[in-house]
Prior knowledge:
alpha/beta; Leucine Aminopeptidase, subunit E, domain 1; Aminopeptidase; eight-stranded mixed beta sheet; six-stranded mixed beta sheet
Amino acid sequence: MKNLALSLQKFFVLTAIVLFTAGIGLADSPFKVSFNPGMPEDGLIVLGIGEDLSLDRFGQELNKSANSGLTEALKKVDFKGKKLTYKVIPAPAGSKFSQILLVGLGNTKELTPLDWQKIGDLAVRSSVKHFKKAAQITIDTNPGNTANIAFGASLGAYSFDKYFTDKKRHKRQSELIVASYEARAAAAIFNTEHRSVAEGIWYTRDVSNEPANVIYPESFVEFWKDRFKGMANIKITVLDEQDMLKMNMGAIYGVGRGSKRPPRILIVEYMGGKSVDKPVALVGKGITFDTGGISLKNPSGMWDMKYDMSGAASVMGALYGIAGRGAKVNVVAVGAMAENMPGGNAQRPADVVKTMSGKTVSIRSTDAEGRLVLADAVYYTDSKYDPAILIDLATLTGSAGRALGEDYAAMFSRHPELFRGFIDAGKATGEEVWQLPLNKNHFKAIEHDVADVMNSGPSAPGASAGAAFIGTFIKDTTKWVHFDIAGVDNTNRARTFQSTSGSRSFGVLLLNEYVKSNYEQ
């Protein structure tokens, strides 16, 4: 009877730990990560193997239960334990497991937090590829590293499957199990530092991957209002087309007026810092679909124009992650939303519009619309909030993508002292950035003989001219950085943290890391 009581006591203690680490009370989360306190009982598992091929505590426990069968299996397979490699092997007899995914850790003493995240990502994507489901991750390391493994796994678990009627094509994994001998500590770190960031990335990808008949300015606003509902220190303001007319926002209104879907500006304030602290301002281009307007695009590839709202999606996702962490900082996210259509009420090339700033713009091309919606949005943000720094994200120019490809976002600023912080944040998160030039000639090149400035057609390089146009509507004294993410907003293949093609949610990780390292108290 005494042994039964002890067994029951142990059962309830372990159950309590698992429930605690699973995040009970987080029912609205798009995924669940459970932290198992010890070796799983059965099923599919991931084992980490270093380059010295030694076994960690999980490996030793399995090897013991299988009468050294794991050691024998490793001798028979060609697996070197090199970092971010993997191999599937049958589980040794007596282990109670069906199959094992070996993941190479390399030299564990040299692994960075990003490396541990990539290991978690590889564990999930590889197990889904081979087993059709996420295997239980059993890699023995400290709680901080385990939390990073879980974070990477939660990113790799994402897939946009909702329109596949064939369930066999579904890869999205809504439940993950990560084993740890320090499960409670690992869960606490994950839930405090990583969970809301991962959720923000899932939401950013969901809203970006949806087609334009589902996500348009009004529904984008409703999507994020639902996600922010109930979060502490959040205030939401929405400007509609009537507000824009009253505030003389002729640039964003002009872009949106050709569509039956009216434009919107979504403003989300998170005030987690001191009331006297100036906020960090994040402004995103939100063209929910871009036909080019009257300056109609070539139909080839136009289907990707649903991603032209990626900047707005990412600034909202970044704010969600920051607010969910309860960060002690003030942040404002602004999404400048419009659909660029060639309707009967659409603006034309050679039209002149007046912006909120009072400056006038000659419309040279209606397909240079992103800088127009941002002109009013950044001026509104700069003048209303006097931010500590203003950062904008936009899928602005093809030239930025052609210059830097899929590896880097283009970075511009009048304040070169700001570059280092973003470069460091990019290296830490894998969302890397590269500086491109912005000088007085680029600002001069957008001057026009009819209006103050023109939105297209200057002699300056396209990406630099686009940056100069946006900078024209921001005070010289405001710290400002512009990111052209046209080459990194989506991917057509699986890659790190991406199980399938689609939105890369670029900027969510970068902005979270930058704000944490430079502005959080």
